[in-house]
């Protein structure tokens, strides 16, 4: 027998139904009853879709209104005091967004990246005196719903140690001291699920692929020895990397089964087979849950055969991780070029691949046709002329260190830039995008569908840009942007204009909450056929005497926020992107744009889970940024933006990027993220975000001044820029005007205090 199962499924619906209903609920246009109805319909539809692949177990508890880490915090009763004592959906959304249906503002929970993915989670907050109580029925209600449909549930629970590792503290104490209070609630969860007839529970502990301190490794033995008394079988799920030195220890934990990721870390299989006992279930993650390429099924079958030769216990097959990170259904992509479409697999197709693997193991003759199709897709992709561009490959091969060096160090460049730009102390700017109004979106959509001529489209975009420039001048901002009216997404927009990229019509993936992205697919060598942004920036600069920032997405972010080809090292693709962007940077400078911002929001996101592998990643990631940014004169100012990242452990690499100005998220963290820049004595200029654009709350001038005073104490007023946390694309103009007016007022107050 071979069991097939899934670790998790996308949440928002094939047509993003949950997204639109959530946003309607937040606007007060529908109630909780309608939101619950839509959510239940999505869950049921997704369960039926998974059942079509004959899964033996279907995950439950993977659905969320906003974030599964936040769900876990609420289930454990961990609600920070500022949100009050009441539970329920409104409290949940206050924690997530800083606001619920009542409109009252709160400081939302901090948000950051889920390991090395583009998914954002809400950071739990714990105190030394923290108490835990089972405070939500969500998991149990949804388990009953799935059972009512006649399917076998495998509830998914975020493990106690991973949840605690991800939590932040506001005082100095050892989070592990909370384990004795936390574990009884996990025991209650498992016993209650057992009472519902559940036989297997998937407990996710992805921190097991990190380099954990000894105390945390030892805590796993304590935790799982105590949880083994629960009357259910536990499948311990690890993913995103290898168990490494912890392999033997993890294989001996008192759990009924272990899931390992053999896509991201195939090298760990031998060590796991050397250590796992045959009375345990071994779940092989053979289908890529993070990327959209078809599985090499023959290679997967070879792996399974090798495992069977050494492991005589029960074998399960699954995706490498939750399918949260991929779109739902490839069949919706009717416009894709058929040859390339044959190389791809979305969530439904990945589960079908699982079914084919089991069929090939149990009835080989019945799987021959599907295996032949899969093998042909692998062969045609490798041989396709669409993938390879000899000129691009030659340019990467010819790279040398001189392309990654500015002519002069920052101390000299800074003086030239100040003479050229003539900015005041505490210069104000924004991160790039301004509100995307329905009119802007309609014009873009009509142009794409051929309902609007190119001349009319350009006219409408120029009107939007002119409006944005006038608004910024009226607000009194010092460095302006063109507003990015023409851009659908900061990655998709560039990918549409670069060779080697492919786009879907319905390939939506959740980034956070109701925020969805449609990641491009990098299928071949990347080059820039023509300028991408110059006409819009040049037009905007012609409208004002103030300096205009050209806005680009950096090579590492384009890489990390795309589905990337897996037939060459990621570093090679990053260098191709860097060379393409280098041409764009040079064209912007020639067009008279004095400041160029190259966003690297996903820079930290690409760090491998194991710190021993960080140096290799950071070396090529920094090099890629410097290749694209270093071909300008000393007087041209290079900015970069990074959001929702911890910088302490990579601050030297960030400094090595040598951007003249870096802007970062700091408002939700109350300027805590600046500590990294202080201890390191970061040499260049910094714009710590003072306005949380991911919350609908409008900050006060006093709050921004307080944040900036903290920042000034830490990094010095002469290095300080003033800006929001991130782009303003998702906000409304009336809120933006008020917030930016207060931000400019804050700058004026600070200038008056230093006499400028």
Secondary structure layout plus pairing:
Layout: E1 2-4, H1 17-26, H2 32-51, E2 58-60, H3 68-75, H4 89-97, E3 111-113, E4 120-122, E5 125-126, H5 138-148, E6 153-158, H6 160-166, E7 168-169, H7 179-195, E8 200-204, H8 214-227, E9 233-237, H9 247-251, E10 257-261, H10 269-275, E11 281-287, H11 297-310, E12 315-319, H12 338-341, H13 347-362, H14 368-383, H15 390-397, H16 410-421, H17 438-448, H18 454-475, H19 492-495, E13 499-502, E14 509-512, E15 515-517, E16 521-527, H20 534-541, E17 549-553, H21 555-560, E18 563-564, H22 570-590, E19 595-599, H23 614-629, E20 637-642, H24 651-657, E21 661-664, H25 675-680, E22 685-688, H26 701-715, H27 733-754
Parallel strand pairs: 1-12, 2-6, 5-7, 6-8, 8-9, 9-10, 10-11, 11-12, 16-18, 17-19, 19-20, 20-21, 21-22
Antiparallel strand pairs: 3-4, 13-16, 14-15
Structure write-up:
The protein has an 8-stranded parallel beta sheet. A 5-stranded parallel beta sheet has the order 17-19-20-21-22. The chain has a 3-stranded mixed beta sheet with strand order 13-16-18. It is built from 27 helices and 22 strands. Helix 1 (17-26) packs antiparallel against helix 2 and helix 17 runs antiparallel to helix 18. The N and C termini lie far apart (77 Å). With 756 residues, the protein is of the alpha/beta class. It has a domain at 412-754: TIM Barrel. The longest helix is centred in the middle third of the chain and has 22 residues, at 454-475. It catalyses: 5-methyltetrahydropteroyltri-L-glutamate + L-homocysteine = tetrahydropteroyltri-L-glutamate + L-methionine. Pathway: Amino-acid biosynthesis; L-methionine biosynthesis via de novo pathway; L-methionine from L-homocysteine (MetE route): step 1/1. L-methionine binds at residues 431-433, 484, 599. Zn(2+) binds at residues 641, 643, 665, 726.
């Amino acid at each position: 027998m071979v069991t097939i199962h899934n670790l998790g499924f996308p949440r928002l619906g094939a047509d993003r139904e949950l997204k639109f209903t959530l946003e309607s609920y937040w606007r007060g246009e529908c109630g909780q009853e309608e939101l619950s109805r839509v959510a239940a319909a999505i869950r049921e539809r997704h369960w039926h879709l998974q059942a079509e692949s004959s899964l033996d177990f279907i995950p439950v508890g993977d659905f969320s209104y906003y974030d599964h880490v936040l769900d876990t915090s609420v289930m454990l009763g961990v609600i920070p005091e500022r949100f009050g004592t009441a539970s329920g959906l409104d409290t949940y959304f206050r924690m997530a967004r800083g606001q619920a249906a009542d409109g009252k503002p709160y400081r939302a929970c901090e948000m950051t990246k889920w390991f090395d993915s583009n998914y954002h989670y809400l950071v739990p907050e714990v105190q030394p005196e923290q108490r835990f109580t089972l405070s939500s029925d969500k998991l149990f209600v949804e388990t009953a719903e799935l059972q009512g449909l006649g399917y076998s549930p495998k509830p998914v629970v975020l493990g106690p140690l991973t949840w605690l590792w991800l939590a932040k503290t506001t005082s100095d104490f050892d989070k592990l001291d909370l384990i004795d209070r936390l574990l009884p609630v996990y025991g209650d969860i498992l016993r209650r699920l057992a009472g519902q007839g559940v036989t297997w529970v998937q407990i996710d502990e992805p921190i097991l692929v990190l380099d954990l301190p000894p105390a945390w490794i030892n805590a796993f033995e304590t935790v799982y020895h105590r949880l083994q008394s629960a009357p259910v079988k536990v499948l311990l799920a690890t993913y995103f990397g290898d168990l490494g030195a912890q392999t033997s220890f993890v294989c001996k934990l008192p759990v009924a089964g272990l899931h390992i990721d053999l896509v991201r870390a195939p090298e760990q299989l031998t060590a796991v087979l050397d250590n796992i006992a045959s009375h345990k279930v071994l779940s092989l993650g053979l289908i890529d849950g993070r990327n959209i390429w078809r599985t090499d099924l023959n290679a997967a079958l070879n792996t399974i055969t090798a495992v069977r030769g050494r492991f005589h216990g029960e074998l399960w097959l699954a995706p490498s991780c939750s399918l949260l990170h991929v779109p739902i259904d490839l069949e919706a992509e009717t416009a894709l070029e058929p040859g390339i479409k044959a190389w791809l697999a979305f969530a439904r197709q990945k589960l079908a691949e699982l079914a084919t693997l089991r069929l090939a193991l149990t009835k080989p003759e019945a799987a021959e046709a599907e295996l032949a199709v899969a093998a042909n897709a692998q062969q045609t992709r490798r041989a396709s002329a669409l993938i390879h561009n000899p000129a691009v490959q030659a340019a990467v091969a010819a790279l040398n260190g001189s392309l990654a060096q500015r002519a002069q160090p920052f101390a000299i460049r800074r003086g030239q830039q100040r003479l050229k730009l003539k900015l005041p102390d505490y210069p104000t700017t924004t991160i790039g995008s301004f509100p995307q109004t329905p009119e802007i979106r309609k014009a873009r959509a009509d142009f794409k569908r051929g309902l609007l001529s190119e001349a009319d489209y350009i006219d409408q975009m120029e009107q939007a840009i002119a409006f944005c420039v006038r608004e910024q001048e009226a607000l009194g901002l010092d460095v302006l942007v063109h507003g990015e009216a023409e851009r659908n997404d900061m990655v998709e927009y560039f990918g549409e204009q670069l060779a080697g990229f492919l786009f879907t019509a319905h390939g939506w993936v959740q980034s956070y909450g109701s925020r969805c992205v449609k990641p491009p697919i990098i299928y071949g060598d990347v080059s820039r056929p023509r300028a991408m942004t110059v006409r819009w920036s040049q037009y905007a600069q012609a409208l004002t005497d103030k300096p205009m920032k050209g806005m680009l997405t950096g090579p590492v972010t384009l890489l990390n926020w795309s589905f990337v080809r897996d037939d060459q090292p990621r570093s090679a693709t990053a260098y191709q992107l860097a060379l393409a962007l280098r041409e764009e940077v040079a064209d912007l400078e020639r067009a008279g744009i004095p400041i160029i911002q190259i966003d690297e929001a996903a820079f930290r996101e690409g760090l491998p889970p194991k710190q021993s592998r960080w140096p290799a990643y950071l070396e090529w990631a920094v090099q890629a940024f410097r290749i694209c940014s270093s071909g300008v004169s000393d007087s041209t100012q290079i900015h970069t933006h990074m959001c929702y990242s911890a910088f302490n452990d990579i601050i030297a690499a960030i400094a090595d990027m040598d951007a003249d100005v870096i802007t970062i998220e700091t408002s939700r963290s109350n300027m805590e993220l600046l500590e990294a820049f202080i201890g390191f004595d970061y040499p260049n200029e910094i714009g710590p975000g003072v306005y949380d654009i991911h919350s609908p709350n409008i900050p006060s001038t006093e709050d921004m001044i307080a944040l900036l005073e903290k920042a000034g104490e830490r990094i010095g007023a002469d290095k300080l820029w003033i800006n929001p946390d991130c782009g303003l694309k998702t906000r409304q103009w009336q809120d933006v005007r008020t917030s930016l007016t207060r931000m400019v007022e804050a700058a004026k107050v600070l200038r008056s205090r230093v006499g400028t």
